[in-house]
Design goal:
mainly beta; 77 residues; elongated
Length: 77
């Protein structure tokens, strides 16, 4: 499942999007899943925050890669 959470624009013209994505995976636990917040700038991913969950939704691990915050001047569209 992939769902756009929110779009943002900055005064310099950059467009940001935050996506929520769910992947079914057995990598960390049988029947588990990953929930990911993807940060995209002008259409390209620049970072993500991943939560690795077991089959019951219990948190096993989480990690951050790249840029996982929006610029201070970003405004919701």
């Amino acid at each position: 499942m992939e769902r756009l959470q929110q779009k943002y624009t900055c005064p310099n013209g950059d467009e940001w999007e935050v996506w929520f994505v769910v992947y079914d995976t057995d990598k960390y636990a049988p029947g588990g899943r990953d929930e990911v917040l993807q940060y995209k700038k002008n259409g390209s991913e620049v970072g993500h925050h991943t939560r690795h969950l077991d089959k019951d939704g219990g948190l096993l691990d989480e990690n951050y890669h790249g840029m996982t915050t929006l610029p201070e001047d970003a405004k919701p569209v």
